[in-house]
Amino acid sequence: MINAIKELSFQTVFDAAADAMLLADGSGRIVWINDAAQRLLGYQKSELIGLALEMLVTPRYRKQYRYYQKLFLNKPARRALNAGIELIALNCEGKELLLDISLSPIKVKQQVYILMIFSAAKRRLDAEEALRASEERLRLAKQAADLGIFDYDFKSNIVYLDEQMRKLWGKQSEKTVSYDEFVAAIHPEDRAARQTAIEKAMDPASTGEFKAQYRIINPSNGSERWISARGRVYFEDGYPNRLIGITRDITEQKKSQKKLQVQRGETENILKQQVAVRTASAIAHELNQPLAAISAYSEVVLHALNSDNFSATNLKRALEGCVEQTQRAGRSLHELLAFLQKGELVTERANLNDVIHEALNIVYDDGYGRFHPVLYLEQNLPDVQCNRIQIQKVLINLFRNAVEAMRTMDLPILTIITKLQTINGKDFAMVVVQDSGPGLDPTVAKRIFEPFFTTKPSGIGMGLAISRALIEANGGQLWLDANAITGAKFHFTLPAIS
Ligand code: ADP
After folding, report:
1. Average pLDDT, consecutive stretches of 10 residues, N- to C-terminus, the chain (498 residues)
2. Which fold has domain 254-340?
3. Domain 348-495 indexed as CATH 3.30.70.120
4. What number does the ligand 1 atom closest to the CA of 462 have?
5. CA 376 to centroid of ligand 1, rounded, Å
């Protein structure tokens, strides 16, 4: 037995060991490594022998390693495995390995050698790697979301800033700043609101949630950025301890909000102008007819006064016409204004047949008299609920348009057919006004309800737009029958009273 030990060479024992072993000389150069060490590190023996041991150590720990090597060589003593000595080595692929090591000094002829036995401390390295990976993930997520992190310790009054925060605050080289320094970068106008938000979050009765938006002025270049900050105050024994949170640069968002606001303001102005123009046009539309009639009556009066023989009866009739038209204009304006101001619609029970007759009379009186009205009325027509004057206005507009259209043709007689019937059971009454004029070209037909659309030299183009709005305000609909065989055929409905 003793003989066998004597015959066993150091190298045989060394190579047979299951654990990784390495022998270095007093200057730290590798003298020998065993097969297990070769397998663990992945290098060829020839690559390692003669190499300084520190070359196996991860570069960032080499300085530290040199220090410990010196300490060990000054006072060589055995250190067992799992005694907490660790080393981060690089394998042949450059991967870091955390090793548990044992150290044993061996003295041979005044020379000190170090025997190092090591094994991979796998579990801890995995945990470190997982931590590094999660830190990396957090870093990438922060970068992608442009987030900064801050940690304000109330007791020390110090704020920790991460890289992104340091950039924004212009404090590239300081990881922590005093709270006063931190606040100094905040725009003076935004400090009070932000402070109130912090105080609210510091109230132990609150959820501790902190939310604020403020501007910061970078002290290094004077640039101004908008920041959105969110965080939570943490309490210790019921007292606020620290505020940890994230910030996001929302300068671009604020800029586009501002742009949108300006645009909205401009659009509102344009709309207001359009409403003003439409209102003026609607008024002009309402006054056009009575003014023309008043002018015509006044000319008759003047003419009569200039001639020697004038009849007092004719004069009286013309002046009565003037009065009547003036009053009508007043009533129209009053109605129109009420409608434009969206005042409450005053409706009444009305017999549509009567309303149609009234409208026809007004059109005759306006000098549109030379046409032939044909009326088709359904038996037992129900009354409708409507604003009488407004429906009159719609009918007058339809009759006038019909006459004007027919006058462009050389017709011996101008006929307007008006039909009155019920639809949808008896829920609605429908009025159809059809002329014998040229009808409408499809491209014109598409646009006739648009405000200001007109094909007439002195037209305003508001009649049909106003008519449709009036019918809709009265609960019905107004449309053009695009398939009419002769002339133009308009329909409108009104709710019937059962
Ligand atoms: P305006 O009479 O001032 O032109 P309207 O809104 O009442 O305004 O009419 C718009 C346009 O619709 C008219 O210019 C005309 O081209 C067309 N239109 C309306 N009624 C008729 C009709 N009965 N026959 C042919 N075209 C019509």
Report:
1. 73 87 91 91 90 88 85 83 76 85 88 88 67 78 82 91 90 88 94 92 92 92 92 89 92 87 73 71 82 90 84 90 88 74 77 92 75 86 91 92 92 92 88 96 93 84 86 93 93 92
2. Helix Hairpins (1.10.287)
3. no
4. 6
5. 24
